[in-house]
Amino acid sequence: MEKLTITLTDRPPVRVDKEQWPIIASAKDWDNEHEFQANRTWHLKVRQHEDGRCIVYGIYSTNWHNENDLRGGELVDDVACVPETIKSVADYLGFNARLADECIADLPAEDL
Questions:
Q1: Domain parsing of the chain, residue ranges
Q2: CB of 50 closer than 8 Å to CB of 20
Q3: What average pLDDT is seen over the chain?
Q4: Cα–Cα distance, 112 to 110 (Å, whole number)
Q5: Angle of helix 97-105 versus helix 82-93 axis, rounded to 10
Q6: What pLDDT score does 8 carry?
Q7: 5-27 residues labelled b (16+ CB within 10 A) or e (exposed)
Q8: What CA–CA distance (Å, rounded) separates 86 from 58?
Q9: pLDDT for position 65
Q10: Residue 110 contacts by C-beta under 8 Å, 6 or more apart in sequence?
């Protein structure tokens, strides 16, 4: 059982079991041609528990000495609010809106 601690915005971090909270959507970007050469990376992820709760979170990592890493996220009880929350987390962290759109597009398709 592998645990993961996730930093949330304006509340204490949460610790989850990765198996019980699988990633259902994600998007990432970096500032170089190849990710392994990147000086900066941006990640947005959505994890969902079988009870329907979701955690939307983002991580900005930098190798520049005059910059700081950033983390933030939100716990969401209503899955219908996840797209709005993705945009909110991305905005809070200063991410490009395209990254939020890519993460929303990666969510599981809705059957109509």
A1: 3-105
A2: yes
A3: 94
A4: 6
A5: 150
A6: 97
A7: ebbbbeeeeeeeeeeebeeebeb
A8: 9
A9: 87
A10: none
Residue 91: per-residue pLDDT: 97
Residues 6+ apart with CB under 8 A from 6: 13, 14, 15, 16, 47, 55, 57, 73
Q: Is 62 exposed, middle or buried (0-12, 13-18, 19+ CB in 10 A)?
A: middle
Q: Which two tokens stand for residue 32?
A: 């170089």
pTM of the predicted protein model: 0.92
- Contact by Cβ (8 Å): 25, 103: yes
Residue 32 near residue 88, CB atoms below 8 Å: no
Structure tokens at 7: 């930093």
pLDDT digit string (tens) for 13-59? Answer: 999 999 999 999 999 988 888 878 778 899 999 999 999 999 999 99
Percentage of the chain lying above the pLDDT 90 cut: 79
SS3 20: coil
